[in-house]
Amino acid sequence: MDSVDLVQTVLSTFAAMTMANGNSTRDNATVAQQNTTSSPLSHSQALPAVASTILSMLLSYSALRDWAKLLIIGSVIETCRRVVMNGWQTLHESVWISASFEEDDSSYNWILHWFSSRPQWRNARTVDVSTRPFGLIPGIRNITEDDKGEKPWYLPSLSETYTVWYKGHYVRLTRRRQDEGVWGGHREILQLSILALRRGILNELLTDAMDAYKTAQEHLISIYVNEASGGDYWRCSTTRPKRPLNSIILDPGIKDLLLNDARDFLNSRSWYQARGIPFRRGYLLHGAPGSGKTSMIHSIAGELDLNVYVISLSRTDDSSLAKLLGDLPDRCIILMEDIDAAFRHGISRNSTPDDKTTPANASKGNHADQSHDDGLGTGIRVTLSGLLNALDGVAAQEGRLLFATTNFYGALDPALSRPGRMDLHVEFKLASKYQAAELFKCFYLPEQNDSECSPYTDTPSNSEIPARSDITDDDQKRDPPTEKTILLSSPMSSDDSPIISGTTHGTRAPKLSRQEITQLSSRFAEAIPERMCSMASLQCYLMTYKTRPEAAVLEAAAWVEAERSKKRRATGDEAVLRKM
Ligand SMILES: Nc1ncnc2c1ncn2[C@@H]1O[C@H](COP(=O)(O)OP(=O)(O)OP(=O)(O)O)[C@@H](O)[C@H]1O
C-alpha cells in the first residue's frame, strides 16, 4: 500500500464515521429504519470496524509494524530489567546490612577507630595521608611512634573500598565525601556493609566499636569545635589526656565546690524532671587571666568523663547556634571562653583601664554596649538575645553543663549571668601563698607511679637543706646542664630583654627528699607576695628552674621585684596613654 492509498483509506473511513455520527442525531425511529436500509454500518458496529480498519491499515504499514515490535520488545526488556533489579535489590538487602556514619557524629569515630585495629587495614596499599588532627582517630595508624612535631596519619582513601573480616563476616568500608549542595561544603561519610543474614551483627559491631573507642578514650577527653564550612556541625578537633584534678591548685574548697556541684547535677535528672526545672546547669568562672579557669574546666571534664564542646561565637550566627546547641549529646560540657569579649565592640585582652574593658569601667558601659550585641566589629554574628535563646530555648539540649569564662565579671550583661543561665559564679584570684607553695611541690615532688623517671627519691636524704649561701654551689654541682641548654626569657636578668639558661626535660634533677621539697616550697611561698602574680606566671617562672628547685627559691625574690617593676612600667605607660 502506497501513501496515496493510505490517505484514501483514511478519508473514506473518516467519512463513514462522520455519517454514522450524523445519523444518530435524527429521529430515532426514522433513522433506525433509514440506517437499516441506507447504511451498512450501525452506530455500535461502526467504531470497532473503524478501529480494526485503522489497526489493519497501520499494521500493513511496515515501518509502523517494526516500531510496534520494537516497542513491545523494549517494554519486555525494561520490565525484565526492573524485575531483575528489584530481585537483586531484595537479594542484596537480605544478605547485606548497610549503615552509614556522618563525620559530625560520634559513631563515625567509633567505626574509624574500630577499622584502624583490623589486621587487613594494616596491609592496605591505598591510603590517604594527613597531618590534620583527628582526635582519637590518630590510632588509625601513624608511621612513627615519635612524639615530635607533626605526625602523618594514614586514613582510608576516599577512592577505595576496603574489605575486612568481623566475626566471620565479610565487611566492606568506604569513606566518601558528600557535597553539601549549594553551600559548597562537604562532609565525610563512612559507608559500612556487612555480608550477613543476621541483623544483630551490626549491633554487635557497633557495640564493640563503641566499647573499644571508649576504652581507648578512658584517659582522654575529646575537644569538639563548631565548624562553619558546609553547614554548622561539631568536629572533633583533638583529644588530650585528662588533666588530673590535683594538678590544679586552688585555694581549699573551690575544686570540691565545682566538682561536687557538677557531679550532683548529673545525678539529679529525675529530681529536675519531677519539679519541671530544665535539666541544665551553668557555671561562670571569672577572675584574673592565667588563674586556672580553663584548666579547671578540662580537669572537671576528665573527672566526669565528659567531652568538651567549645563554642566559637565568631563562627556561627543565631540560627546556627540554636542548631548547634540542639545537636549536643546528652551529657557534655559546653565551653564559652571570654564570653564578655563576644558582645563588646573592640574589647581586647590588652585594653587600658580607660576603656570599657576593665572591670570597673566595663560595668558602667554595660547597657550602652547592648547596641553592640550584634557583634559589629568583632566578627561575631551572634546577638545577645540569640545566645540567650539558644542557651535556654525549647530546642536547647538537656543534661549539659555550660561553663563560661571571663576576665571582666562586671562587663557581663546581667541577663547572661543571671541564675538559671549561670547558676554558680566562682572567682579565680591571683595566686595566694598557699597556691605558690603547692605549685612548687607539684613541680618538684616525684610523681606517684613514676619512680623510674622521677628525678627524686622518697628515701630520706642525710643532707640537710643547704643554707641559702650554699645552695648555689651545691645546686651547680648537682644540676649540671647535661643536655642541650635552651634559652628561655626570664625577668631575672638586669637588662630589659632578660635571658636565662634553662634546662631541658631530659636533664636529671638533684635528689631531694619529700621533706626537703616541702621546706623549700615554704620558703618559695614566703618570697611570693599574696595575690600579686598569676598561677600561670608562677608556672612560667618555675619552668625555667624545672631541675633546680633551690635556685628557684633563691631567685624568687628577685623575680618578684622584676615583676613589680614590669607592672609599674605598664601602669606608667597606661597613665601616659590616658593623658594622650
Ligand atoms: N590554679 C592553677 N593551678 C595549676 N596550674 C595553673 C593554675 N592556674 C593557671 N595554671 C597554669 O597556667 C596556664 C594557664 O591557665 P588557664 O588557661 O587555665 O588560665 P585561665 O584562667 O583560663 O586564663 P585566661 O583567663 O587567660 O583564659 C596553664 O598552663 C595552667 O597549667
Automatic annotation (TrEMBL):
Compositional bias annotation for Basic and acidic residues: 366-375, 470-482
Catalysed reaction(s) here are: ATP + H2O = ADP + phosphate + H(+)
Q: Identify a single GO molecular function assigned to this protein.
A: ATP binding
Extent of Polar residues compositional bias: 451-464
Q: Where is this region: Disordered?
A: 347-375, 451-510
Predominant localisation class: mitochondrion
For this record, an example GO cellular component is: mitochondrial inner membrane
> Per UniProt, which keywords does this protein have?
ATP-binding, Hydrolase, Membrane, Mitochondrion, Mitochondrion inner membrane, Nucleotide-binding, Transmembrane, Transmembrane helix
Where are stretches of biased composition, namely Low complexity?
A: 487-501
**InterPro entries for this protein:** AAA+_ATPase, AAA_lid_BCS1, ATPase_AAA_core, ATPase_AAA_CS, BCS1_N, Mitochondrial_chaperone_BCS1, P-loop_NTPase
Q: Which residues form the AAA+ ATPase domain?
A: 279-432
From the Swiss-Prot or TrEMBL record, give the protein name.
Answer: P-loop containing nucleoside triphosphate hydrolase protein
